[in-house]
Amino acid sequence: MPASEEPTPGPEGLIDRRISRKTVLRAAAVLGTAPLLVGGGVALARDRAGTGEAPGLTPACHDGDDPTIEQTEGPYFKPNSPLRTSLITNSTPGTRLTVSGYVFGRACLPIAGVLLDFWQADVNGAYDNVGFTFRGHQFTDAQGAFSLTTIVPGLYPGRTRHIHVKLQAPGRPVLTTQLYFPGEPRNSTDTIYDARLLMNVRQVGSAKEGTYDFVLNVPQTPTTPPTSPGPSTTPTTPPTTPPGGSWTVGTLYNAGDRVTYSGVSYQCLQGHTAVTGWEPPNVPALWKRL
Ligand SMILES: [Fe+2]
Fold first, then answer.
1. How remote is the CA of residue 163 from the centroid of ligand 1, in Å?
2. pLDDT, tens digit, 9 for 90 and up, residues 239-284
3. CA–CA separation, 231 and 215 (whole Å)
4. Which residues are CB-neighbours of 195 under 8 A, at least 6 positions away?
5. What is the Å distance from ligand 1's center to 281 Cα?
6. Is the Cβ–Cβ distance between 194 and 68 less than 8 Å?
Protein backbone atom coordinates (compact mmCIF):
# COMPACT_ATOMS: atom_id res chain seq x y z
CA MET A 1 0.00 0.00 0.00
CA PRO A 2 1.56 3.26 -0.96
CA ALA A 3 2.40 5.79 1.64
CA SER A 4 0.66 9.08 1.72
CA GLU A 5 2.12 11.96 -0.17
CA GLU A 6 3.36 14.01 2.69
CA PRO A 7 4.69 17.14 1.04
CA THR A 8 2.28 19.96 1.01
CA PRO A 9 2.37 22.56 -1.67
CA GLY A 10 4.19 25.75 -0.88
CA PRO A 11 2.28 28.92 -0.36
CA GLU A 12 0.90 29.97 -3.66
CA GLY A 13 -0.54 33.23 -2.49
CA LEU A 14 -4.18 33.97 -2.68
CA ILE A 15 -5.63 33.77 -6.11
CA ASP A 16 -9.13 34.92 -6.70
CA ARG A 17 -11.63 32.15 -7.05
CA ARG A 18 -12.80 33.24 -10.42
CA ILE A 19 -15.22 31.55 -12.70
CA SER A 20 -13.45 31.77 -15.98
CA ARG A 21 -15.17 31.96 -19.28
CA LYS A 22 -13.37 28.82 -20.32
CA THR A 23 -14.67 27.00 -17.26
CA VAL A 24 -18.14 28.09 -18.13
CA LEU A 25 -17.67 26.95 -21.65
CA ARG A 26 -16.33 23.60 -20.61
CA ALA A 27 -19.20 23.22 -18.20
CA ALA A 28 -21.49 23.88 -21.10
CA ALA A 29 -19.69 21.27 -23.10
CA VAL A 30 -19.97 18.81 -20.27
CA LEU A 31 -23.64 19.40 -19.85
CA GLY A 32 -24.27 18.92 -23.51
CA THR A 33 -27.57 20.65 -23.13
CA ALA A 34 -26.13 23.56 -21.26
CA PRO A 35 -28.68 25.89 -19.79
CA LEU A 36 -28.40 29.34 -21.25
CA LEU A 37 -28.80 32.36 -19.07
CA VAL A 38 -31.02 35.19 -20.08
CA GLY A 39 -28.85 37.32 -22.27
CA GLY A 40 -27.03 34.44 -23.86
CA GLY A 41 -24.58 33.48 -21.12
CA VAL A 42 -24.01 29.84 -20.35
CA ALA A 43 -24.82 28.79 -16.81
CA LEU A 44 -22.18 26.97 -14.87
CA ALA A 45 -23.76 23.96 -13.24
CA ARG A 46 -20.89 23.18 -10.91
CA ASP A 47 -20.78 26.56 -9.27
CA ARG A 48 -24.50 26.76 -8.94
CA ALA A 49 -24.72 23.36 -7.34
CA GLY A 50 -24.71 23.46 -3.59
CA THR A 51 -24.46 27.18 -3.29
CA GLY A 52 -27.87 28.22 -4.42
CA GLU A 53 -26.19 31.21 -5.95
CA ALA A 54 -26.53 32.35 -9.48
CA PRO A 55 -23.26 32.40 -11.37
CA GLY A 56 -21.58 35.75 -11.60
CA LEU A 57 -20.45 37.52 -14.68
CA THR A 58 -17.44 35.93 -16.24
CA PRO A 59 -14.30 37.96 -16.79
CA ALA A 60 -13.37 38.82 -20.32
CA CYS A 61 -11.29 36.09 -21.82
CA HIS A 62 -8.69 38.47 -23.19
CA ASP A 63 -7.96 39.71 -19.68
CA GLY A 64 -6.04 36.50 -19.18
CA ASP A 65 -6.80 33.86 -16.65
CA ASP A 66 -4.73 32.76 -13.70
CA PRO A 67 -2.48 29.90 -14.70
CA THR A 68 -3.36 26.49 -13.38
CA ILE A 69 -1.72 26.09 -9.99
CA GLU A 70 1.20 23.82 -9.35
CA GLN A 71 1.00 20.88 -6.95
CA THR A 72 3.42 18.38 -5.51
CA GLU A 73 4.57 15.63 -7.81
CA GLY A 74 4.34 13.06 -5.02
CA PRO A 75 6.53 9.99 -4.80
CA TYR A 76 5.15 7.95 -7.69
CA PHE A 77 6.04 9.77 -10.88
CA LYS A 78 8.02 7.77 -13.41
CA PRO A 79 9.49 9.26 -16.59
CA ASN A 80 9.22 7.64 -20.01
CA SER A 81 5.56 6.73 -19.84
CA PRO A 82 4.03 5.26 -23.02
CA LEU A 83 2.44 7.50 -25.61
CA ARG A 84 -1.26 6.64 -25.33
CA THR A 85 -4.58 8.26 -24.59
CA SER A 86 -6.10 5.19 -22.95
CA LEU A 87 -4.69 3.69 -19.77
CA ILE A 88 -7.05 0.74 -19.67
CA THR A 89 -8.06 -2.43 -21.47
CA ASN A 90 -11.45 -4.12 -21.62
CA SER A 91 -10.56 -6.20 -18.59
CA THR A 92 -9.30 -3.36 -16.41
CA PRO A 93 -11.44 -3.24 -13.26
CA GLY A 94 -12.88 0.07 -12.17
CA THR A 95 -15.40 2.71 -13.09
CA ARG A 96 -14.71 4.01 -16.59
CA LEU A 97 -13.65 7.63 -16.70
CA THR A 98 -12.75 10.01 -19.47
CA VAL A 99 -10.96 13.26 -18.70
CA SER A 100 -10.98 15.81 -21.47
CA GLY A 101 -10.47 19.50 -21.95
CA TYR A 102 -8.24 22.12 -23.47
CA VAL A 103 -4.91 23.69 -22.68
CA PHE A 104 -4.81 27.46 -23.01
CA GLY A 105 -2.15 30.12 -22.71
CA ARG A 106 -2.50 33.44 -20.92
CA ALA A 107 -4.49 35.03 -23.72
CA CYS A 108 -7.03 32.21 -23.71
CA LEU A 109 -5.76 30.83 -26.96
CA PRO A 110 -5.53 27.05 -27.15
CA ILE A 111 -2.06 25.56 -27.41
CA ALA A 112 -1.36 22.67 -29.75
CA GLY A 113 1.30 20.10 -29.08
CA VAL A 114 1.26 20.40 -25.29
CA LEU A 115 2.62 17.31 -23.57
CA LEU A 116 0.34 15.89 -20.88
CA ASP A 117 1.77 13.05 -18.83
CA PHE A 118 -0.84 11.39 -16.60
CA TRP A 119 -0.35 8.93 -13.79
CA GLN A 120 -2.73 7.63 -11.18
CA ALA A 121 -3.54 4.83 -8.75
CA ASP A 122 -5.47 1.74 -9.79
CA VAL A 123 -8.89 0.83 -8.47
CA ASN A 124 -7.31 -0.34 -5.22
CA GLY A 125 -5.31 2.84 -4.67
CA ALA A 126 -1.97 1.37 -5.70
CA TYR A 127 0.55 2.81 -8.15
CA ASP A 128 2.48 0.63 -10.57
CA ASN A 129 6.06 1.56 -9.73
CA VAL A 130 7.53 -1.32 -11.72
CA GLY A 131 5.72 -1.06 -15.02
CA PHE A 132 3.59 1.64 -16.60
CA THR A 133 0.05 0.65 -15.71
CA PHE A 134 -2.04 3.80 -15.38
CA ARG A 135 0.73 5.92 -16.83
CA GLY A 136 0.69 7.55 -20.23
CA HIS A 137 1.44 10.71 -22.09
CA GLN A 138 -0.23 12.44 -25.00
CA PHE A 139 -0.20 15.77 -26.81
CA THR A 140 -2.94 18.30 -27.37
CA ASP A 141 -4.29 18.36 -30.90
CA ALA A 142 -4.44 21.34 -33.25
CA GLN A 143 -7.36 22.75 -31.25
CA GLY A 144 -5.48 22.44 -27.96
CA ALA A 145 -7.68 19.55 -26.84
CA PHE A 146 -6.78 16.41 -24.96
CA SER A 147 -8.72 13.33 -23.88
CA LEU A 148 -7.74 10.59 -21.47
CA THR A 149 -9.51 7.25 -21.10
CA THR A 150 -8.99 5.64 -17.73
CA ILE A 151 -10.82 4.57 -14.58
CA VAL A 152 -11.72 6.47 -11.46
CA PRO A 153 -8.58 6.08 -9.33
CA GLY A 154 -8.86 4.29 -6.03
CA LEU A 155 -8.19 5.85 -2.66
CA TYR A 156 -5.07 5.36 -0.60
CA PRO A 157 -4.25 6.55 2.90
CA GLY A 158 -3.72 10.23 3.42
CA ARG A 159 -5.12 11.48 0.13
CA THR A 160 -8.39 12.25 -1.49
CA ARG A 161 -9.16 10.94 -4.97
CA HIS A 162 -6.88 12.50 -7.58
CA ILE A 163 -5.07 12.16 -10.88
CA HIS A 164 -1.52 13.43 -11.37
CA VAL A 165 -0.47 15.25 -14.51
CA LYS A 166 2.53 17.09 -15.88
CA LEU A 167 2.06 19.55 -18.70
CA GLN A 168 4.63 21.14 -20.94
CA ALA A 169 3.99 23.47 -23.83
CA PRO A 170 6.67 23.31 -26.52
CA GLY A 171 9.80 25.01 -25.25
CA ARG A 172 8.24 25.95 -21.93
CA PRO A 173 8.74 24.78 -18.32
CA VAL A 174 6.87 21.78 -16.94
CA LEU A 175 3.79 22.34 -14.80
CA THR A 176 3.13 19.54 -12.32
CA THR A 177 -0.32 19.43 -10.81
CA GLN A 178 -3.25 17.18 -9.88
CA LEU A 179 -6.94 16.93 -10.71
CA TYR A 180 -9.70 16.32 -8.20
CA PHE A 181 -13.23 14.97 -8.14
CA PRO A 182 -16.19 16.90 -6.74
CA GLY A 183 -18.18 15.45 -3.88
CA GLU A 184 -15.36 13.41 -2.40
CA PRO A 185 -15.54 13.25 1.42
CA ARG A 186 -11.78 13.45 1.73
CA ASN A 187 -11.58 16.70 -0.21
CA SER A 188 -12.19 18.50 3.06
CA THR A 189 -9.36 16.80 4.92
CA ASP A 190 -6.63 16.37 2.29
CA THR A 191 -4.13 19.20 2.86
CA ILE A 192 -2.91 19.02 -0.75
CA TYR A 193 -6.40 19.23 -2.26
CA ASP A 194 -7.28 22.53 -3.92
CA ALA A 195 -10.73 23.34 -5.25
CA ARG A 196 -9.20 25.23 -8.16
CA LEU A 197 -8.25 21.85 -9.56
CA LEU A 198 -11.71 20.33 -9.38
CA MET A 199 -12.92 18.72 -12.55
CA ASN A 200 -16.48 18.92 -13.73
CA VAL A 201 -17.65 15.34 -13.53
CA ARG A 202 -20.91 13.90 -14.74
CA GLN A 203 -22.31 10.42 -14.70
CA VAL A 204 -22.97 8.85 -18.08
CA GLY A 205 -24.57 5.47 -17.62
CA SER A 206 -22.12 3.46 -15.55
CA ALA A 207 -19.19 5.69 -16.53
CA LYS A 208 -18.02 9.14 -15.56
CA GLU A 209 -16.93 12.01 -17.75
CA GLY A 210 -14.60 14.61 -16.29
CA THR A 211 -13.49 17.83 -17.89
CA TYR A 212 -10.88 20.37 -17.01
CA ASP A 213 -9.18 23.19 -18.89
CA PHE A 214 -5.61 24.00 -18.03
CA VAL A 215 -4.08 27.45 -18.36
CA LEU A 216 -0.32 27.51 -18.78
CA ASN A 217 1.81 30.54 -18.11
CA VAL A 218 2.58 30.92 -21.79
CA PRO A 219 2.56 34.47 -23.14
CA GLN A 220 0.32 34.87 -26.13
CA THR A 221 -0.56 37.74 -28.37
CA PRO A 222 -4.27 37.93 -28.95
CA THR A 223 -5.19 37.89 -32.59
CA THR A 224 -4.97 41.39 -33.97
CA PRO A 225 -5.54 42.70 -37.45
CA PRO A 226 -2.34 42.94 -39.45
CA THR A 227 -0.76 46.37 -39.52
CA SER A 228 0.60 47.92 -42.64
CA PRO A 229 4.36 48.44 -42.73
CA GLY A 230 5.63 51.90 -41.93
CA PRO A 231 3.69 55.03 -41.15
CA SER A 232 0.65 55.61 -43.23
CA THR A 233 -1.85 58.39 -43.50
CA THR A 234 -4.33 56.18 -45.26
CA PRO A 235 -7.07 54.93 -42.97
CA THR A 236 -7.14 51.21 -42.73
CA THR A 237 -10.09 49.70 -44.49
CA PRO A 238 -11.84 47.22 -42.26
CA PRO A 239 -11.94 43.76 -43.72
CA THR A 240 -15.25 42.76 -45.16
CA THR A 241 -14.84 39.25 -43.84
CA PRO A 242 -13.73 38.57 -40.26
CA PRO A 243 -10.37 36.79 -40.07
CA GLY A 244 -11.98 33.76 -38.50
CA GLY A 245 -14.61 33.27 -41.19
CA SER A 246 -18.30 34.09 -41.25
CA TRP A 247 -18.67 33.65 -37.46
CA THR A 248 -18.99 37.12 -35.95
CA VAL A 249 -19.04 38.47 -32.42
CA GLY A 250 -22.38 39.96 -31.46
CA THR A 251 -24.41 37.91 -33.89
CA LEU A 252 -27.47 36.09 -32.62
CA TYR A 253 -27.25 32.54 -33.87
CA ASN A 254 -30.11 30.10 -33.84
CA ALA A 255 -29.91 26.34 -33.69
CA GLY A 256 -29.19 25.05 -37.17
CA ASP A 257 -27.36 28.15 -38.38
CA ARG A 258 -24.14 27.46 -40.19
CA VAL A 259 -20.90 29.43 -40.05
CA THR A 260 -17.30 29.03 -41.03
CA TYR A 261 -14.37 29.61 -38.71
CA SER A 262 -10.73 29.20 -39.71
CA GLY A 263 -11.83 27.42 -42.83
CA VAL A 264 -14.03 24.91 -41.00
CA SER A 265 -17.81 24.76 -41.18
CA TYR A 266 -19.91 24.51 -38.03
CA GLN A 267 -23.59 24.15 -37.24
CA CYS A 268 -25.15 25.91 -34.28
CA LEU A 269 -26.55 23.56 -31.63
CA GLN A 270 -28.10 26.13 -29.29
CA GLY A 271 -29.30 29.64 -29.87
CA HIS A 272 -26.96 32.25 -28.40
CA THR A 273 -25.29 35.56 -29.04
CA ALA A 274 -21.67 35.14 -30.04
CA VAL A 275 -19.04 36.68 -27.79
CA THR A 276 -15.26 36.69 -27.85
CA GLY A 277 -14.00 33.38 -26.53
CA TRP A 278 -16.98 31.45 -27.84
CA GLU A 279 -15.42 30.78 -31.22
CA PRO A 280 -16.84 27.52 -32.59
CA PRO A 281 -13.75 25.38 -31.91
CA ASN A 282 -13.87 26.39 -28.25
CA VAL A 283 -17.49 25.63 -27.50
CA PRO A 284 -18.62 22.16 -28.54
CA ALA A 285 -21.84 22.73 -26.65
CA LEU A 286 -22.75 25.51 -29.03
CA TRP A 287 -21.20 24.49 -32.34
CA LYS A 288 -20.90 21.15 -34.07
CA ARG A 289 -18.15 20.74 -36.61
CA LEU A 290 -19.53 19.69 -40.00
FE1 LIG B 1 -1.02 10.28 -5.83
1. 7
2. 443 456 888 877 888 888 898 888 888 888 877 667 666 678 876 6
3. 37
4. 17, 180, 187
5. 33
6. no
